[in-house]
Amino acid sequence: MRMRSLVVFKSMGFALLLALGAGSQAAEITVLSSNGVKTVLDELGPQFEKATQHKLVFRFAPAAELKGRIDKGEAFDVAILTTPLIDDLIKQGKVPAATRADIAKSGAGVAIKKGAPRPDISSADAFKRTLLAAKSIAYVGQGATGANVRKIFERLGITEEMKAKTKILSGVSASEAVADGSAELGFTQISEVLGVAGAELAGPFPPELQVYTVFPAGVSAGAKDPAAAQSFIKFLTAPAAVPVIKAKGMEPG
After folding, report:
1. What is the pLDDT of residues 223-248, one digit of tens each?
2. Residues 10-23: pLDDT tens digits?
């Protein structure tokens, strides 16, 4: 009975949040978001629009690419990037620190073509053997996972061996690359694998090599409607958003 009351209380709190958002004048909110949280926003975005009458305009790309576009002057209302990039926007005064909130975090995983044999990636040694045996591997050059993969190659002492078989992607995800057969293994955020037809998750990186990426959000200092933009971030960090985030292979921020 006590647990049921707690659930009802949380639901009422979430409903109140939606009511507050719906009470303001409808606004158009431009969101520049890392591909890492696309599957989450694809589900929660329409719910937010229905509850508040605000309209969301999403622009998805690798976080580093979006940061570069913001640095060049691209306008936005909400940015959802990686921790270092959001923190740099705060230092530049482009995102007020008070608006920053961690939305979700994700580990990296290995994508394979749907139905393909699952490689052994259960340990660092097994992962190394699998990498050396693979005919081709792929990751997005500007993606959050790319820098971590290169560090892993160095740690395993196979940087030179991997050069000839590595495909650095741009404009296509690692999951899409394995789905269309252009790469045997793809390295990306786990959440990005789950959203691509024709690809499946072979598994996360081994625990000793795993690096988690946190995706914070922040409101632009030049947001057209700061209150509406902030209400979207509050929506994404509300308790009712947690099941969606977990269903997409991520954890709440």
Report:
1. 999 999 999 999 999 999 999 999 99
2. 443 454 455 444 44
pLDDT digits (tens, 9 = 90+) for 175-210: 999 999 999 999 999 988 887 899 999 999 999 999
Q: How many residues does the chain have?
A: 253
| Domains of the chain listed by start with CATH number | 2-105+215-252 (3.40.190.10), 108-204 (3.40.190.10)
With CA atoms as reference, report the closest residue to 194 among 94, 100, 114: 114
